[in-house]
Design brief:
This protein is an alpha+beta fold. It contains seven helices and eleven strands. The strands form three sheets. The chain has a five-stranded mixed beta sheet with strand order 2-9-5-4-3. The longest helix has 20 residues. The protein is elongated, with a radius of gyration of 20 Å. The two termini are 29 Å apart.
């Protein structure tokens, strides 16, 4: 699933490509992936900017409305030229001024989109529930938030109501960087260590954004390019490989319902 760095990369690329352009026509949409609004209202609207909230991609329109996309596991939003064939699993096609097309595709159909005005977006239960942005809070604030709950630190990092935008990749990578076992209880981790975890999380997120995100299988940016941060992974997806710190084989186990790769020697269980 695209996480914060991947969606941020898509948002920045799309913003460059579509800012100030108007939607001429809706050429196709799949009703089953629409959560709110009516695509027939889109022609004639101008795209003012593109942003991200958590793992949501927000295409802002004039009259204070927006197209909100949740990409889930295999969703993509990108710009295609008019002569490109539409992918098989295309769910929305907006023809833009200049004839380029904004395309939303999703092979597995877990992703969705909606059209919201500002009031409806703010009232949307999913949007309301989102926790703070990790890159817009201090490490002390994030550390206090993690320590306030008696739950596993890995499950809290993945919980979108606690921190917005983090998934399995960046949870595993930041826990290894801070040398904290993913099964640790967050409230048992000393405050200084939680601050270190949040500092490492912010560093890794920024490095991943600079690298264009991580491409495991389906992720591509707005230009159709892969990210390269996967080349910098220290533990994610590396079960059985040597720990980059001590050389012991990395272990993978189910923690918080997700496969969690870690070093049983370097990462302390609290």
């Amino acid at each position: 699933m695209p996480e914060l760095p991947e969606v941020e990369t898509i948002a920045r690329g799309l913003h460059t490509l579509v800012k100030g352009r108007s939607i001429r026509e809706i050429l196709h949409f799949t009703p089953s992936v629409l959560r709110a609004g009516n695509p027939d209202s889109l022609p004639g609207r101008t795209i003012t900017h593109v942003s991200r909230r958590a793992k949501l991609l927000l295409v802002h329109l004039d009259q204070e409305e927006c197209l909100a996309f949740h990409l889930k596991m295999t969703g993509r939003v990108w710009i295609a030229s008019p002569d490109q064939d539409l992918p098989k699993h295309t769910h929305l096609v907006c023809e833009l001024k200049g004839r380029d097309r904004l395309i939303f595709e999703d092979t597995r159909r877990f992703g969705f989109f909606g059209i919201f005005d500002q009031q409806d977006l703010a009232a949307w239960n999913f949007y309301q529930s989102l926790g703070p942005e990790p890159l817009e809070s201090t490490t002390e604030e994030l550390a206090q938030r993690l320590g306030a709950r008696r739950a596993g630190v890995k499950s809290l990092l993945l919980n979108q109501t606690v921190l917005a935008g983090i998934g399995n990749i960046y949870a595993d990578e930041s826990l290894f960087a801070a040398r904290i076992h993913p099964a640790s209880l967050a409230a048992n981790i000393p405050l200084a260590k939680r601050i270190q975890l949040c500092s490492e999380l912010q560093r890794i997120l920024l490095e991943a954004i600079a690298a264009g995100g991580s491409t495991i299988s389906d992720y591509r940016n707005a230009y159709g390019k892969s990210g390269i941060f996967q080349d910098s992974f220290e533990v994610y997806g590396k079960k059985g490989q040597p720990c980059p710190a001590c050389g012991r084989a990395l272990k993978a186990e189910q923690i918080a319902g997700r496969t969690s790769t870690h070093c049983p020697r370097c990462q302390k269980l609290y």
